[in-house]
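> agent: user asked for a holo structure of the chain below bound to zinc ion. Plan: (1) validate sequence alphabet, (2) canonicalize SMILES, (3) run complex prediction with ligand conditioning, (4) return tokens. Step 1... ok. Step 2... ok. Step 3 dispatched.
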Amino acid sequence: MTKIKRFVFNDFKTNCYVLYDGSYEAVIIDGAANSHSELKELYDFIQDNFLIPKYLINTHGHLDHVCGNYYLDSHYRIPMLMSFEDNFLIENALCVADKFGYAIEPPPKPDKNIKDHDIIKFGDTQLEVIALPGHSPGSIGLYCEEDDFLISGDTLFMESVGRTDLPGGNYEKLMNSIINRIFKLPPDTVIYPGHGTDTTVIDEKKYNPFFTD
Ligand SMILES: [Zn+2]
């Protein structure tokens, strides 16, 4: 059984998740910690639970999701995985941070680019990469069939959807990703988004104003 710990980090209230199971192996999803206290909270949780981080995975390359990657990379020296289509966002991260008046250390480039249908394994857990372009060109979800959950990034939120006005964003692609990928998952699949609380596929089909009349 995969356990999911959610942290809410930085000024953008971005969710960073630690997934782990009985093997003690773990993955960190979206390295959003951007202060000493936030990093300490994450490091302490990992240490207190005897976890062994195996990968740092990014759902996409936006600043608020990668701003702690520099520190996590220096601390754990684990491979960083992200979609190729969002590499340009990592390359531009310092410029974007500057525009927002936000000081960050340069996020490292991905060690490996992941793509649709790739399988990421840690401990006894398997995550399938699902391409969800729209919020950014390389947005992905991470689906665990065995435990019925999806880490959705900023594609779908509880009763809302991701913005598409940032570079490379595309509203038609976003809606297509939700309708033809996320909504095709089993109805009870729990969705853990990049911001806000978790929801389910069935609840979003029923209550999300973007998909109801
Ligand atoms: Zn984003």
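> agent: step 4 complete. Summary for user: The pocket of zinc ion is lined by residues 60, 62, 65, 135, 154 (CB under 6 Å). The radius of gyration is 16 Å.
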